[in-house]
Amino acid sequence: MNQDIILEIQDVKKHFPVGRNKIVKAVDGVSLKIKRGETLGLVGESGCGKSTLGRTIIKIYEPTGGRILFEGENISSPRKRGDRSLVDKMQMIFQDPFASLNPRMTVGDIIAEGWDIQRRYKGRERKERIVGFLELVGLNEEHANRFPHEFSGGQRQRIGIARALTMNPSFIICDEPISALDVSIQAQIVNLLMDLQKRMNLTYMFISHDLSMVRHISDNIAVMYLGKIMEYAGNLDIYSNPLHPYTKALFSAIPVPNPRIERKRQRIMLEGDVPSPINTPTGCKFFSRCSSAKEICELEPPKLTECEPGHYVACHFVD
Amino acid sequence: MENILEVQNLAFSFNTYAGEVQAVRGVSFSLKEGETLGLVGESGCGKSVTARSIVRLNPPYPTGEVKGGSILFKGRDVNKVSTKEMEEIRAKDIRMIFQDPMTCLNPTMTIGNQISEGILKASKNMSKRDARERAIEMLDLVGIPSPEDRYRQYPHEFSGGMRQRVMIALAIAVTPKLLIADEPTTALDVTTQAQILALIKKMQIEFKTAIIMITHDLGVVASSADKIAIMYAGKITEAGPADEIFERPAHPYTWGLLKSIPRLDSDVKQKLTPILGTPPDLFNPPEGCPFAARCPYAMKICRMYEPGTVTISQEHTANCWLYHEMAGNVLNPITGKMVKA
């Protein structure tokens, strides 16, 4: 195994049965590799399966198919109750800082919960460590005895980050960590995340629909649509040279904070909405909204192929 | 051209058990026919309260209270008209689009009935059949496929983007003079956002509607607004034509906002420059400039006295002490020039 690859997923699927003979194929065959210390940005519209993929990797959901290799070890088989072998390797930061913290626990207890379950630290040592993590994320000692409702959104997100770090994980899934925050606070949190990554040698999977923030923080970017990866490439490469028709449309929809540029811009408008993930088309998933679709797109799903070094595209008409 | 809307020194407070929250503290702006004003600010800065004051949808006394100022719509003070007249204004002249279309549409009524109800309210002598025709025409206009079938459907049968289109149809079906869009695209994906913004623009050109676009996303107003007002802690800190605000911003808060968002042409993996701290508590707004506590350029006077409005150029104003003759000259980080030439 390549030591450099921290996480490799091969053809991972997550299907949810809904009602009679209906299946939502939320994640439908995704393969990815993440190197140690990098940030992978996962972008796509809501309902494209990006959060489900994150949750499947960290085993909140059991995968329907495929393999997940973490540090060379296959973790895709169902875990037993009480199996905590993953907790000190992988953690998650959630989108909603209001819903993801238990309102009945003090901040100190929230941060120490992982240790408490494993009975790791007691008394003074526990307290000192809580303060250490609070300071790490820019809070201070006196916050430990307060409850989540006493904090603002940005501060709560800091608490969520501290909680994720307590078990010394090497891999963190950030599921829309900044979407619920104000612009001026978003930058604070993104800076904190980048800072911590350097200091603790963390690997991130950064799930977001804020495309300009993803560009800022990521090394590589994967674009998802209806449970499939449409394009995967290095960060600058994919923004300057998007190849998949979907990626092109998605990027051209990003509003630019400059009125002069905005007035001149030609947008590629996508018609309609993302189709329902129930009984998706057999061919290319983007077929129904693609302006350059041909017959083959309806029949055959395109494979994710490397068309330039490090630049993968799933489209019949890009080589 | 005459101003269709004039807001003068508006102040609005909420009376709570914990005390008085001064949500809006002296806001003034005006709007002409066919013009778009972008009202930008963080959550809690009072932008929605300002907008709802215009249609008197804020909670009435004793919960909410207009503390001062006037709102003139077509020359009439909306705070002085009767409830009945206000209802008429809301039905015919000023319409609103909200952030969450699911909670604004009636789930027990078909989409079509909701739109025709609005049309019938606005023009009393229209027949039901004509209203229905008009509603279908509107659904078609906002880009809803097979509008005749969709007319009979309920809100839950529509996707988020489609519901927002219905909200727009509902609002413009009566060709209002003023449209207030309160974060109309915040709940939507970028591709849908682009569709909806283009649609609003198209409707504006067709009906010459004046629009107040409330948002926290500077990108959204860049594409749609003619002029912009930046709000902070219940006050307008800077206002001016859109190009001026983005290219020659004058207030440190605007600088901070523009610097804290990553741009598509900026260096990646560089530290962003956030605005440190959090907005002030409006139970107890600080003396002096509300932004002083977070402002890297703050001087002693900023914490003591509120800055007056400075004219930067024609129609471009900012509330900041940096432009006072006694203040030291600083570098504007966006333009790269000194603030006082």
Describe this structure in words.
- The complex is a heterodimer of chains A (319) and B (341).
- With 319 residues, chain A is α/β, with parallel strands linked by helices.
- The longest helix of chain A is centred in the middle third of the chain and has 18 residues.
- Chain A has one domain: P-loop containing nucleotide triphosphate hydrolases (Rossmann fold, 3-Layer(aba) Sandwich), CATH 3.40.50.
- In chain A, 30% of the residues lie in helices and 23% in strands.
- In chain A, the strands form 2 sheets. In chain A, strands 6-7-8-3-9-10-12-11 form an 8-stranded mixed sheet, sandwiched between helices.
- The mean pLDDT of chain A is 89.
- Chain A starts with a strand and ends in a 6-residue tail after the last strand.
- By secondary structure, chain B is an alpha/beta fold.
- Chain B folds into 2 domains: 223 residues, P-loop containing nucleotide triphosphate hydrolases (Rossmann fold), CATH 3.40.50.300; 92 residues, no CATH class.
- In chain B, strand 7, helix 8 and strand 8 form a beta-alpha-beta unit.
- In chain B, helix 4 crosses helix 5, helix 4 runs parallel beside helix 7 and helix 5 crosses helix 7.
- Chain B is globular and about 70 Å long.
- Chain B starts with a strand and ends in a 22-residue tail after the last strand.
- The mean pLDDT of chain B is 91.
- The interface between A and B is large, with 45 and 47 residues.
